[in-house]
Amino acid sequence: MNKLYNAGKLVLGKLQDFDSNAELPKESQEAFDKWILQRSIETAEEMAKAFENYEFLQARRLFEDFFWSEFCDNYLEIAKGRLSIDSGDKERAAERISAQHAAYQTFLNILKMASPFVSHITEEMYHAEVAKKGDAEGARESIDSKSDKGYFYRSEGGKSIHNAKWPSATTKPAGAEIMDGAKLALFVISEGRKVKTVKKIRFGASVSLMEIKCPKAQHGLLKPFLEDIAFAMRAEKIAVADSEKTKVSVEGKSM
Asked: Contact 31/224 with Cβ under 8 angstroms?
């Protein structure tokens, strides 16, 4: 419940100027955004099958694996860079809107999937608004929830999360190339984090260069993900080279 609250507060804090009813062409969506949306639908479909077979524990495991690992540990950490782009930055506006769209749709799907297990917190988050408390400089964001208010409540028009339709695909699947590319990109980020740990570099610390060595056939798969990989690794520069096996190296900043 704490994780749902904190993830929801982060997402809602980045959606204050986002119009959920605006059309977003598929070609305008960033690769990692297509991936997380697709994974949320796949998880919902797998959960529905488990529910139909009365395998409630399996449905919960499917949800928790997706929510904790794929959404919180991976997607939110990766997408923070684009979600935090200044609203006045016209050159990168499309990147920010793509991340907002994915965060909105995916977190709404998460509330639907979690609602059979934690019915009260999901309803609270469906009716939640971001409220700022304290003076302007030290203002802290918190959640204020009322039955006749809420960002998702206004955008979706439904009285309750428990009246909402179960998540289902409204567009064509992301495609094998995007899904395979995301899997490779997440492996690269994981390996990069291991290298940082070995070199005693904090995850949030910048590095001057990240080099990814992988088979040439995989270069095209990685290309749409490189900018997000660079943000996740806090790499100022990223380079891709040929290798039989996938390897990652980082060079820290000289002091």
From this structure: yes
The answer to the question of residue 169 being in a domain is no
Domain membership of residue 216 as a residue range:
176-252
Whole-angstrom Cα distance, residue 19 to residue 4?
22
Mean of pLDDT values over 160-187: 91
Is residue 87 domain-shared with residue 180, that is, in the same domain?
no
Going by C-alpha positions, the residue among 106, 112, 139 that lies closest to residue 7 is 106
Q: Which of 163, 194, 229 is the last residue of a domain?
A: 163
240 Cβ neighbours under 8 A, 6+ residues apart:
211, 212, 213, 214, 219, 222, 226
Residue 202 DSSP code: -
Q: What is the mean pLDDT of residues 144-172?
A: 90
In this structure, which amino acid lies at residue 16? Q
CA 209 vs. chain centroid, Å, equals 24
Query: Residue 11: pLDDT above 80?
Result: yes
- Using CA atoms, how far apart are residues 23 and 89, in angstroms rounded to an integer? 20
Joined tokens for residue 77: 């950490």
Q: How would you class 120 by CB atoms within 10 Å of its CB: exposed for 0-12, middle for 13-18, buried for 19 or more? A: exposed
Q: What is the pTM of this model?
A: 0.92
182, exposed or middle or buried, with CB in 10 Å at 0-12, 13-18, 19+?
buried
Q: Which residue has the tokens 């959606």?
A: 15
Q: 192-245 pLDDT, tens per residue?
A: 999 999 999 998 899 999 999 999 999 999 999 999 999 999 999 999 999 999
Separation of CA 214 from chain center: 25
CB atoms within 10 A of CB 241: 12
